[in-house]
Amino acid sequence: MESIRIGILTVSDRASRGEYEDRGGPAIHDYLAEILACQWTPVPRIVSDDVAGIQDALVQLCDRERCSLVVTTGGTGPAKRDVTPEATERVCEKMMPGFGELMRKVSLEHVPTAILSRQTAGIRGSSLIVNLPGKPSAIAECLDAVFPAIPYCIDLIDGPRIETKTERLVAFRPQGK
Ligand SMILES: Nc1ncnc2c1ncn2[C@@H]1O[C@H](COP(=O)(O)OP(=O)(O)OP(=O)(O)O)[C@@H](O)[C@H]1O
Ligand SMILES: Nc1nc2c(c(=O)[nH]1)N[C@H]1C(S)=C(S)[C@@H](COP(=O)(O)O)O[C@H]1N2
């Protein structure tokens, strides 16, 4: 069975310059390692909050690296340099607004500033891109909410079959497909 490739893209001016250690990328990696039951290969990248650079990284991860899923962290807020959702929209053929809606809803249980994230998701070819906020603590909070729908979403775009450790997270497939 082919290993499922998953892109992990940290978008942070300071982490990309080495001013602080990236904790977002490793948090996404650890989360996936904890819930996935299938063989997978992480493809990590760090870029600054620059729209062209984020777009380039997303295109490379989807098209060249053949990642079925790309999870980004950072750059989703209202600040001038926060442009991850714009870069995501520019490279996707189809937007999946339900991801952002659900992640903001669950994040509101943790922080009143959850509505400041413009995080979204979209489809490029056979890849799903999902944005998460930059706070490392937001990663598990958001992924716990949306991950149950991710394996079926990837089935629908002709991606590989993703299996999860059911004791940790159950992937929902209609009619138990
Ligand atoms: N990759 C990361 N690793 C560790 N902490 C992070 C990371 N990204 C963000 N943070 C923390 O979460 C906060 C909010 O994230 P945000 O994406 O708004 O960063 P920022 O303030 O725009 O700065 P930068 O882009 O330089 O990370 C940051 O100020 C930082 O404390
Ligand atoms: N779960 C969760 N969502 C969250 C946060 C958080 O700490 N936890 N921070 C909020 C804040 S303060 C901001 S400004 C926005 C955007 O964050 P970003 O620019 O780091 O992506 O995400 C929001 N969503």
Which keywords apply here?
alpha/beta; binds adenosine-5'-triphosphate; 177 residues; 6 strands; 7 helices; binds the ligand Nc1nc2c(c(=O)[nH]1)N[C@H]1C(S)=C(S)[C@@H](COP(=O)(O)O)O[C@H]1N2; six-stranded mixed sheet; Molybdenum Cofactor Biosythetic Enzyme, Chain A
Summarize the model shown:
The protein has 177 residues and is of the alpha/beta class.
SSE topology sketch:
Blueprint: E1 4-11, H1 13-16, H2 24-35, E2 40-47, H3 51-64, E3 69-73, H4 84-91, E4 94-95, H5 97-107, E5 121-124, E6 127-132, H6 138-146, H7 150-156
Parallel strand pairs: 1-2, 1-3, 3-6
Antiparallel strand pairs: 4-5, 5-6
The structure holds adenosine-5'-triphosphate and ligand MTE.
The structural class is alpha/beta
How does the major sheet shape up? 6 strands, mixed
CATH superfamily: MoaB/Mog-like domain
Overall tally of structural domains? 1
Q: Which term fits the overall shape?
A: globular
Q: What ligands can be seen in this structure?
A: adenosine-5'-triphosphate, the ligand Nc1nc2c(c(=O)[nH]1)N[C@H]1C(S)=C(S)[C@@H](COP(=O)(O)O)O[C@H]1N2
How would you describe the overall organization of this protein?
By secondary structure, the protein is of the alpha/beta class. The protein has helices at residues 13-16, 24-35, 51-64, 84-91, 97-107, 138-146, 150-156, and strands spanning 4-11, 40-47, 69-73, 94-95, 121-124, 127-132. Helix 5 (97-107) packs across helix 6. The ligand Nc1nc2c(c(=O)[nH]1)N[C@H]1C(S)=C(S)[C@@H](COP(=O)(O)O)O[C@H]1N2 binds at residues 74-77, 82, 107, 110-111, 113-114, 116-117, 133-135, 137-138, 141-142. Pfam families: MoCF_biosynth.
